[in-house]
Amino acid sequence: MGAETSGPRVVVGVDGSPSSHAALRWAVRYAGLIGGTVEAVAAWDLPGAYGWSALAVDADFDEAVARQRLNQELNDVLGREEAASAGALVVRGNTVDVLLTAAEGAEALVVGSRGRGGFARALLGSVSQHVAQHAKCPVVIVRPETR
């Protein structure tokens, strides 16, 4: 999942949250400093996929639409020119597992401090906490920008 590129790679988790947008901007700045490339990774999975409960959503997930949405998000956050230089991956699987796999051999894994779910007052989300504990590369956790 990205180990084919030469030079330093910076992997960033993107989920549409303000925190992930700040992480994406941070990753692009850092990659520019080290002469690296950015891989924006979005993970998706079906609710209940790992349990015995019935699926809560239609199993016909449109991965092409998800890729278009990720590319549009990159354009919105970074601008068209910078977004064109970033790789974009949409991967099915548990978010933590997807990010850890994508970050193998990376210079750094960048995530937002909190994603779209969880408790609004939490300082650290479950994904950022898990990747910080288990990644084999440095992890940067970025808080959302305040205005």
Topology:
Layout: E1 9-13, H1 18-34, E2 37-44, H2 63-78, H3 80-84, E3 87-92, H4 95-102, E4 108-112, H5 126-134, E5 139-142
Parallel strand pairs: 1-2, 1-4, 2-3, 4-5
Helix pairs in contact: 4-5
Task: List key phrases describing it.
alpha/beta, globular, 147 residues, 37% helix, 5 strands, five-stranded parallel β-sheet, 5 helices
Q: Give the overall shape.
A: globular
Number of strands: 5
SSE succession: EHEHHEHEHE
Radius of gyration (CA) equals: 15 Å
Residue stretches low in confidence (pLDDT < 50, at least 5 long) are: none
Strand order of the largest sheet: 3-2-1-4-5
Helical element count?
5
Task: Give the mean pLDDT.
Answer: 84
Q: Structural class per helix/strand content?
A: alpha/beta
| Percent range for β-strand residues | 15-25%
Ends distance: 35 Å
Fraction of residues in helix: 25-40%
Largest sheet: 5 strands, parallel
Structure description:
- The chain is of the alpha/beta class and about 150 residues long.
- The chain contains five helices and five strands; from the N terminus they run E-H-E-H-H-E-H-E-H-E.
- It has helices at about 20-35, 65-80, 80-85, 95-100, 125-135, and strands spanning about 10-15, 35-45, 85-90, 110, 140.
- Strand 1, helix 1 and strand 2 (about 35-45) form a beta-alpha-beta unit.
- Helix 4 runs parallel beside helix 5 (about 125-135).
- The protein is globular and about 35 Å long.
- It starts with 8 loop residues before the first strand and ends in a 5-residue tail after the last strand.
- The mean pLDDT is about 85.
Please sum up the structure shown.
This protein is of the alpha/beta class and 147 residues long.
